[in-house]
Design a protein that fits this description.
Number of helices: 7
Number of domains: 1
Shape: elongated
CATH superfamily: DNA methylase specificity domains
CATH topology: Adenine-n6-DNA-methyltransferase TaqI, Chain A, domain 2
Strand content: 25-35%
Distance between the termini: 38 Å
Structural class: alpha+beta
């Protein structure tokens, strides 16, 4: 460890995430975001489906902007379930099964199923920066999954994830560069 400390560039500090610039913080995600999940109406009631409300499922998250949903809900389906409409720009994270850890950014107002965590950053955290940060930290999240045949990530695991938090101008610059390399 002494050799590692000696090799830290000037202006950097050692953190639980490794060396970071001195003006960056390490925070738990739950300290800087609010999270919510969606729901699924009773599949036995066809009148709950096929309406005007886009309904995104976790399989539709693929580290890109979500521009459409393959299914939709009626007002009745929305009211009779835990589904909620999230606004365009909401950051989404898949919590269950094969898609766990995948992210998406809503390109439309839409409801989601319960296998998706909707993430609402506080003003000092940019959604675009967090989008790419979650992709980068996916393995850390997946290593904490629990359960049997299809291990899951819970909102508690998500909220406890340590993330690097640079000042806003640096978040903007990082997100801008990453958007040119990996567009949403």
């Amino acid at each position: 460890m002494a050799n590692e400390i000696q090799n830290i560039p000037e202006g950097f500090k050692i953190t639980e995430l490794g060396p970071l610039p001195e003006d960056w913080q390490v925070v738990r995600l739950g300290e800087v975001v609010e999270t919510k999940s969606g729901g699924t109406p009773d599949r036995g009631k066809p009148e709950y489906f096929g309406g005007p409300i886009a309904w995104v499922k976790s399989g539709e998250l693929n580290d890109t902007e979500v521009k459409f949903a393959s299914e939709s809900l009626t007002e009745s389906g929305l009211k009779n379930s835990n589904a909620k409409i999230f606004p365009k720009g909401t950051l989404l994270l898949a919590m269950y099964g094969a898609t766990a850890g995948k992210v998406g950014l809503l390109g439309l107002d839409a409801a989601t199923n319960q296998a998706i965590c909707a993430i609402f950053p506080y003003p000092h955290l940019l959604s675009d920066y967090l989008f790419y940060t979650l992709i980068h930290l996916r393995e850390d999240l997946l290593n904490q999954r629990y359960g049997g045949a299809q291990p899951n990530i819970s909102q508690t695991i998500i909220k406890n994830l340590p993330i690097p938090l640079p000042p806003l101008p640096e978040q903007r610059a990082i997100a801008h560069v990453l958007r040119t390399v990996q567009p949403m």
